[in-house]
């Protein structure tokens, strides 16, 4: 673990995060308990007993994406994550545009969830006979998450580890109760047959399933703080996507068994929000349902903290790039956290939450769904661009990676993700429950931000050419100050290169 000398500014706490730590951040961002109890019943309602396959197919698609993504992670050491990968493969204008989409995506995914925190807490309190308004809960959550991000990254990893074990544990308890009792009519895998999977509702299930994985790719954001990042990051990425895909499918299947394949769809239609609670009450006990209510709140808090940490590191990187104000890049001298970025993100969240509250908006139907939806679409667009960037990047450098990793897998992932984005946008009304006008605005927001980013890129090239030329450059060494960039060539640096080595001209992958 590196420590700053008295003459140098503090940096992030390097060499801190293990594979397990990063996996906790990523899986916590997906909020497994909230996704299962809150969203999976709708997937069952739309897709029937074949719904578990939707989660498996989404997990398989993202595993294919991870092949090229993690291969490229061994060659790109910039802390800019998605936008750095896209820049190295598709050029600076697209990379700068992607950086703005990333800020929209991660902020949208986090800020909207404060509405879920308020509504879930109010619902839990009501179930226990108390009346708790949502707004004070959401504002208290903002302060709590700010403090979690203000503290050191290893503190956050420990908190998320505990919360993640708790929320997955209650789902395992539910599944265990159903399996031990044999379900409603005995255990069956009939729902996995093609006749139940190849239905009209499968497309809608896939849209929900892809949304359930949002944020899994954020492993690379923690590169500077990871132990042995060339190994830790790929392992954490595969662990996260494999765990989520298999766990989601298994839990949905057990809930189907709990009600019976002939009755679960009607049960989901009658009370989608209570489906999981009814199942755990029947197979485990009423106490477990009460505990599940409480753990949904902690699941939401874990998701908020994971996204908050990811946003702070994106903001830090863009500040170091010179795209955002330099003040946002300050690191706390003791906690080694990007605390100014965290304070700014918390202030932005508070403004959005208060604006929705003053407008009389519903915390779930509007604050959560309307803010989350463009965030989700933005992150899926980033995945699409990153998949396309992989073969473009490897086509321009000397490397020893196989064609399966550098061409076949990323191209397949690009096609699959394009289809996934099409499914999500086609079924966006299922996510938002909003009017056509509102849905059009929500779907158009991420592409509009991308176009705005292209304009910003061309303005930077004209007015601040040094900042533009330095964007997404490689650090000289792992964990080095990003203000001292690697040569702008996308080729891997020769072992003999030193910081004083002259930089070659920009390569085609970083061309204007």
Radius of gyration: 23 Å
Derived from helix and strand composition plus strand pairing, the structural class reads mainly alpha
Q: For the report, how would you describe the main beta sheet?
A: none
Give the overall shape, derived from the CA principal axes: globular
Which strand-content bin applies to the residues?
Answer: under 5%
Percentage of helical residues? 55-70%
What does this structure look like?
It is a single chain. The chain is mainly alpha-helical and 512 residues long. The protein is 69% helix and 0% strand. The protein has 21 helices and no strands. It has helices at residues 19-30, 32-38, 40-47, 51-73, 82-90, 92-111, 113-127, 134-150, 153-181, 194-197, 202-211, 229-259, 264-270, 275-283, 286-321, 339-358, 363-395, 403-426, 428-432, 436-463, 465-470. Helix 3 (40-47) runs antiparallel to helix 11, helix 7 (113-127) crosses helix 17 (363-395) and helix 9 (153-181) runs antiparallel to helix 15. The longest helix is centred in the middle third of the chain and has 36 residues, at 286-321. The chain is globular and about 65 Å long. The protein starts with 18 loop residues before the first helix and ends in a 42-residue tail after the last helix. The model is unreliable at 478-509 (pLDDT under 50).
The gist of it:
69% of the residues lie in helices and 0% in strands. With 512 residues, it is an all-alpha fold. Helix 5 runs antiparallel to helix 6, helix 6 packs antiparallel against helix 15 and helix 8 packs antiparallel against helix 16.
